[in-house]
Design brief:
Sulfatase_N; 2 domains; Alkaline Phosphatase, subunit A; two-stranded parallel ribbon
């Protein structure tokens, strides 16, 4: 009876540990966006590992399991897929990660949880009587998810035959297994399939265009579209003003989006839904910069962040850019918090100077903005005079002010008579990747806006 009571206590502690680890994520999801099943069985796998490994080493395994759980749960905030996460993590030295309050808080919590895991590992080291129970628990959790039709691994035809759809959410998973499954998928050759983009019918390379033809594509970081008209209008307050409208006609609309920033770039460059890693397969002939170059335009690309991040210095030439300008190529003033780079307004001034220099030469400019990348800088946003009366959250207010300040700087250039007229197409890359649900729900999760300015 004594040993039976100890076994029951151990099982109780196991269940308490397993439920508590998952409850933290469930509680977090009430306020913040995460993409995760209710139950992650990796924490039961960890206990099994603890039976055979010394506590110190099993604790290292726990840290890996927890890190994978956090990353896999949070990757959807920025619309990342697994491959994008893996590449971003390999270049984390380029990001000012310790400037993120969320990262610091998460790290503190991880240290506390690791301390608890050390206690668990000491308790179960060489005490493997309950392995059978843990295996059964794993099978039950994954089995329920399988029956519910939410495991996301089986083909849809098989899943449809057993889907009870009792719960609309993923019941259980292994985040380690999910990561391994996604990384094991072989990258398939992409057959260019046209999808809706803002540039496909608006920025058209023309061999016979006059020598003073100038075109610019601006992908605006985190520029989303809302059902709330106020949130759509504030960023454009100082762009659509009489001094600009007397020189330009305006067209507005929306386009679908999927994925993170590089997916938005590939959408606008090549008209496909694909990763930038497929650029070599597509070639410049199938993408907008290359088509402009073939039509006699000089193709320039500007971005305020590091050239090595997401390998833009490698794949931009593959889609046709001849001249690359990145934030780490200059000692100009830096802006931003985590993604700190050359200030967007400085780059706009450089583009204006380029257009003046090339007044009588055909030019295509691409510009990917940076300073509106979340997390945002309230200090930088305070430069905007925009009012946030009626804006649901302070986080949205800060982002709108940053967009408004950028669009105002662009408006000043477009109204400048020394800058030659140019067709300008602005389009969002993806919806604002707010972590908090209250801010995130204000923006469409499948469409972004575009705005075209055409010289009169």
């Amino acid at each position: 009876m004594k040993y039976l009571g100890k076994d029951v206590l151990n099982i109780f502690l196991l269940l308490l540990y397993f439920i508590s680890m998952n409850f933290l994520f469930i509680f977090y999801s009430s306020y913040f966006f995460i993409d995760r099943a209710f139950l992650n069985v990796d924490y039961l796998l960890y206990v099994i590992v603890s039976c055979f490994m010394r506590p110190f080493f099993s604790c290292l395994i726990f840290v890996v399991f927890l890190a994978v759980d956090v990353v896999m749960s949070a990757k959807g905030i920025f619309y990342f897929d697994v491959n994008s996460v893996a590449m971003s993590m390999s270049q984390i030295n380029l990001i000012q990660i310790f400037q993120s309050n969320l990262f610091i808080l998460t790290s503190i919590l991880a240290i506390l949880l690791t301390s608890v895991s050390y206690f668990i590992s000491r308790l179960f080291y060489r005490n493997c009587k309950n392995i059978k129970f843990m295996v059964i628990a794993i099978v039950v959790v994954l089995g329920l998810d399988f029956i519910n039709g939410t495991n996301g691994v089986l083909p849809g035809s098989i899943q449809a035959t057993i889907n009870l759809a009792v719960l609309p959410e993923n019941i259980g998973t292994s985040q380690i297994g999910k990561l391994a499954f996604n990384l094991a998928r072989k990258r398939k050759t992409v057959v260019p399939v046209q999808i809706d983009s803002a540039s496909e019918t608006r920025l058209i390379p023309n061999q016979g265009a006059p020598s003073n033809d100038h075109k610019m594509l601006i992908v605006v970081e985190s520029w989303g579209v809302s059902d709330n008209p106020l949130l759509n209008s504030i960023p454009l307050n100082r762009l659509l003003v009489p001094s600009v409208l007397q020189r330009y006609d305006v067209n507005r609309g929306r386009v679908p989006f999927s994925g993170a920033t590089t997916s938005g770039e590939m959408r606008e460059f090549c008209g496909i839904r694909a990763s930038f890693t497929n650029a070599i397969e597509l070639g410049s002939a199938n993408c907008l910069p290359g088509r402009f170059a073939s039509a006699g335009y000089e193709a320039y690309a500007f971005h305020g962040f590091a050239k090595a991040f997401l390998k833009r210095q490698e794949w931009f030439p593959l889609v046709g850019f001849e001249h690359l300008n990145f934030g780490d190529d200059t000692s100009e003033e830096k802006c931003g918090i985590v993604f700190r780079g050359e200030c967007d307004t400085n780059i706009l001034s450089k583009i204006a100077s380029l257009m003046r220099e090339r007044k009588n030469q055909k030019t295509f400019v691409y510009y990917l903005t940076l300073n509106t990348h979340l997390p945002n800088s309230p200090k930088l946003a305070n430069k905007s005079p925009a009012s946030c009366d009626g804006v649901p959250t302070q986080e949205i207010c800060t982002l709108l002010k940053l967009h408004e300040e950028f669009f105002a700087a662009l408006g000043r250039i477009l109204a400048d008579p020394t800058v030659p007229p140019m067709q300008v197409l602005l389009v969002g890359d993806h919806a604002p990747p707010f972590a908090d649900l209250k801010s995130r729900k204000e923006f469409s999760t499948h469409e972004v806006p575009f705005l075209e300015l055409v010289p009169k």
